[in-house]
Amino acid sequence: MMLEDTRPALRIAHDAAAPAERWGALRASEADWQAFRAMCEALRGTYFGFPVQRWLAWGLYHTVYRKVGSFLADSDFLADEVGVMSRAEMAIMQRQYTFAHLASNFVKPGCSSTCVRTAEGWRLMRSLDWGNLNVMAPAVRAYEYVNTAGRVTHTAGVQGMVGVLTFCRKGLAGSINFAPNPKSLKPIGRGIDPLFLLRLLVEDPSIDTLEAAVELITRTKLSAPVFITLCSDKSDAAAVIEIARDGRYNVRLAKDGLLVQTNHFDPNGPFGEQNPTRVMQDGSPWEWYYSDLLENSQRRSADLEQRLRHMVGAPATDVEIACREAYSVPPTWNHESIYWTFAAPGKGSMKLWVRDCAGDYPHAI
């Protein structure tokens, strides 16, 4: 099930000069630091257990990341401090989104994001669905990115994550969803990882509207296809930016106050042919719960549309309850659901619920 995380968020002073200052709150918290260390130990055994994996990481680090890598000072600092992964291995793990496309036959991450226009403005509900549930969920944490002017942006992710998956600040909220990749000899490129793009957006004080965020996203070269969902209290619309492998993009707007994005391109849009050809049509709750997240993506989207359409214009508290109920039904609730967030850009606030990994559950609440 999902449990609300009421711990005070850790603060990242993102415009501090040195990585030690930026990550000081994480390093100073013994419980959080040990959670980060335990996650690093588990992930290193999973992804770097063989010499060839470590050699490949070393090669990429020295030939690519040291020359053009984003946020490498933060990544290097965390590697040096935790003493579990090498700098090269830490750099690879910070780019899990990109490298998941290289292992698309084995790694099937998901995510479900929904924007609903309530009586008090837009709200964004998201579920992060990723592999390594028992390793990742205990390391989930709420962070606050704060600059010297005191501007706060709320985020949620795992300990030591240099990039950003989910954010909310006054005026704007957003989330990243995994996008499928067509079969290709070159499934990833040399652009910036999408999680680093979201961090750039979070750290830019001039971006506080949906339109400004869309402009930044669509002019940035990315390393892999992605969906980015945005809503703003300063805009009548919410939007998903669909970005294909070749850098082309499509902006899809909310219809009548509701926008749902899971893990497939708009079938009627310019990239519909890049969706998986196998689509799961039916199954029992347990079959849906354990099903492939790319194959059940269209079912998740249809379910959320059907369950939340009538909530458009309702009080925000009622919408939050309805979202949690809708996200508790398989396949939106599934064997890889790690956390939920509920963001209110008008208030600049965000709630976080984290998966209790005591066992498998057919329900979340």
UniProtKB/TrEMBL annotation:
Residues 167-310 form the Peptidase C45 hydrolase domain. It comes from the Bacteria. It holds the Pfam family AAT. Gene3D superfamilies: Penicillin V Acylase, Chain A (3.60.60.10). This is Peptidase C45 hydrolase domain-containing protein. It comes from Uliginosibacterium aquaticum. The lineage of its organism: Bacteria, Pseudomonadati, Pseudomonadota, Betaproteobacteria, Rhodocyclales.
